[in-house]
Structures are given as C-alpha cells and as structure tokens.
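Changelog-adjacent note: as of this version, every example in the card shows the full chain rather than a window. The one below runs 100 residues end to end.
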Amino acid sequence: MTTKILALTDALGNLVRFVLLPGHRFDTVGVAPLIKGLEFGALLADKAFDSNWIIDDLNTRGAKIVISQHPRRTKPIDIDAEMYKWRHLIENFFCKLKEF
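Full-length structure tokens:
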C-alpha cells in the first residue's frame, strides 16, 4: 500500500498545509481540504489539478489560475507563463522531504 502526499506551500516554498491520501486516489480529492479557509492570490499546480471544479472554485475566490493544462482540455485557460516558472518551489519542497 502506498501513501500520497499533497502539499500547499507559500510563495517562498514553505509548507502551509498538507494532506495524506491513499496512493490509489486522484490528487484532486485532496485539494478541497488543502485550500479550505485560506485566502491566496494564485494557485500554481501541475496538470493533475486541472479539474473544472477546482478552476471554478479559484474563479469564485478571485485567485489567479496557474495550472498546467491537460492536453484534452476543450477550452484552454490562459495562464501566466512567467508565474508558472515558480512552480519549481513546490518541487523543491518535495525534494527536501525525500531527503529524510
């Protein structure tokens, strides 16, 4: 059995909140608990988080959507390419986590 870790970091790559899920669950299942009750200006994520309900929630919050899109998305969303480059900070967080 495996475990999946979903993490939310701040703009500097510092952990804000995390959720543990069974390894066989979709990543999107853990998004609601990660962002519940938090205010933020943008969400940077990879294509595993490209889900209509997540995008609708972000639009409702007025947050900027910076999510790599799934190739099958019928209506592509414009993202800030320069801001997307900063997604490496969450990747760096997971690299540090794997060192332990």
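Structural remarks: The beta strands are 3-9, 15-22, 42-45, 64-67.
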